[in-house]
Amino acid sequence: MDVKLFDSELKVMEVLWQEGDKPAKYIAKILTGELGWNVNTTYTIIKRCVKKGAIERTEPNFMCHALIPKEDVQEAETDELINKLYNGSADKLFASLLGRKRLSPEQIEKLKQIIDELE
Questions:
Q1: Residue of 66, 96, 89 lying closest to 5 (CA atoms)
Q2: So what's the pLDDT on residue 14?
Q3: Strands 63-66 and 22-23, how do they pair?
Q4: How do residues 45-57 score in pLDDT, each as one tens digit?
C-alpha cells in the first residue's frame, strides 16, 4: 500500500470500514459525537483522503466509499511498526507483545494455531 494515512484520516476510514458507504454528512455526525470534531474538520479530512486515493466521493450527497481495505492498512501499519521499532524483526515484536500481558490458555492455544498455519 502506497498511501500513508494519518490518525485523523484513519478515524474517517474506520467509519466507512465499519458502516460501508456513507454520505460525508453522516461521517461528520458520527465523528462529532465520538471525537468532538466540527463538520468542517471532518470534511477537510475527507478531502485529504480523496486526494490520497483512499476514498471516492460521488454525488448525490457526497457519498463516500473506501477504496482501500482495512486489512491493507493494518498490514502496512504493522510493517512500519516492525521496521521502525524492531529493526524489521517480527519475532522481536511478537516477544515484546507476549511479555506484556498474561495470556489465558485459550489465547495461547489460538496463537499456537496461528503459528501452525504459518509453518
A1: 66
A2: 97
A3: antiparallel
A4: 999 999 999 999 9
Percent of the chain with pLDDT over 90: 61
> CA nearest 57: which of 35, 25, 30, 11?
25
Cell of 39: 463538520
**Can you state the percent helix, strand and coil of the chain, rounding each to 5?**
65, 10, 25
> Of 37, 39, 73, which is closest to residue 54 (Cα–Cα)?
73
Burial label for 26, CB within 10 Å (0-12, 13-18, 19+), is middle
Average pLDDT, the chain: 91
Quote the pTM value: 0.79
Beta-carbon contacts of 17 under 8 Å, excluding residues fewer than 6 positions away, are 66, 69, 70
Residue 61 has a CB neighbour count (10 Å cut-off) of 12
Give residue for cell 501452525. 116
- As a whole number of angstroms, the distance between CA 70 and CA 49 comes to 14
Q: Where are the alpha helices (DSSP H) in 36-104?
A: 39-52, 70-85, 90-100
